[in-house]
Amino acid sequence: LVSQAEALKEENDSLRWQLDAYRNEVELLKQEQGKTHREDDPNKEQQLKLLQQALQGMQQHLLKVQEEYKRKEVELEKIKDDKLQVEKMLENLKEKESCASRLCASSQDSDYPLEKTLNSSPIKSEREALLVGIISTFLHVHPFGASIEYICSYLHRLDNKICTSDVECLMSRLQHTFKQEMTGVGASLEKRWKFCGFEGLKLT
Length: 204
Hints:
By secondary structure, this protein is mainly α. The protein is 75% helix and 6% strand. It is built from seven helices and two strands. It has a two-stranded antiparallel ribbon with strand order 1-2. A hairpin with a 6-residue loop joins strand 1 (178-183) and strand 2. The longest helix has 70 residues, at 42-111. The radius of gyration is 34 Å and the shape is rod-shaped. One of its GO terms (biological process) is ultradian rhythm. This is Ecto-NOX disulfide-thiol exchanger 2. Keywords: Coiled coil. It comes from Galemys pyrenaicus. Residues 4-98 form the Ecto-NOX disulfide-thiol exchanger 1/2 domain.
């Protein structure tokens, strides 16, 4: 879109120069015609009419180019605004994910002894804890659940090395945090994961 706008701007400038050249030529012909007093010269008259027609055509084309250029500028500004909003949303989401992972880690450290946590916790590493926090935040804003493919497509934007089977295995181990439900009927039947941490907290 930027390149299109730049091309329209260049075409706009080029048309302006051509338009000025046509106007100058028309003015010169008018002056020449006035000096020689040969209004009856058919060649001069025809040339003048052709130039005037060309001038009108150039003016119309210039107006169209200017309108298209303005429209592209408006679209470009809208895209810039949308980009800023998306960046703000991503930044807020990252802050929530970071906060959730810190809360998860601090909760484990305060509620369980270190030895018991290492031996019995379904979370095996800090990376898995981070994944749990990120997935929980993602599913929290999807109250009707999401498929494992949808969840992993989101995670791949953060780390393209994440494996779908590992994510599904991790979520399956955390039965008090995530639950899988079947939605739809027949061909539209679909497995969706939901966040159930608020209910699961009462059971642990």
